[in-house]
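Hi there,

I know you've been waiting on this one. I reran it after we fixed the sequence typo, so this is the corrected version. Both the input and the resulting structure follow.
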Amino acid sequence: MTSQPTPSRKAARAELAARRRAEAEAARRRERLVRAGVVGLVLAAVVVAGVVLAVRDRNASEEAARQPVPAGATGVGGGIAVGPADAPVLDLWEDFQCPACAQLERTTGPTIEQLVDDGELRVVYHPLSFLDDNLGNDASRRSAAAAGCAADAGVFREYHDAVFAAQPAEEGVGYTDEQLLEAGRTAGLDGAAYDTFATCVDEGRYDGWVRQVADSQDEADVRGTPTLRLDGRTLEGPELTPEGLTAAVRAAAAS
């Protein structure tokens, strides 16, 4: 026959059950506190990371704003504009070490310049430097920066043509400093104007601008050189010939 629990045993069991409930509740509180702490740490880390990124982006923007840009540049990372502001705009992305770019300059370059001179076209030249990595030299950067110095001297287009005309026959040889300076004389600089140009080249005044132009290449989704975009539309095939380009420019002006 089962005996009934005595009052003292009932009290002990009740006390034990109450203690266990209290311990379980305390454990749940500790778990909630731990979870809250983890969430707080994660949120704090996110906030700190956001602040770091914001400061870094602000510093990068301030650094970009401090970089000098050549005369005629359309802004930070912008190319050098030549021609009337109210004409169709041809964005021309080139690398001074690019053989295909030199070929384009030989075949269609004179037509581009004539359209500019006739007031039918505005060209924005974007000198790139990505071939430095491919060819293992720094000639693209140095020639692009020197072209910025030529823009300050008012002879960008002449200098641009002189550098392409002097492009080494063997890809990867690059330009010497002497060749880039001599191109300034070929472009028509002498006396004090040449000295100012040479100082600009020697000190690498526009190296930062060249890096900014390279960044804008990615933003514009330019995958290679030469790339020609007329009012934002990429020209290809027959449109890169003198006749095709002229027709495209006049069609753009009429639209």
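Quick highlight: The first strand starts at residue 80 and ends at 82.

Best,
R. S.
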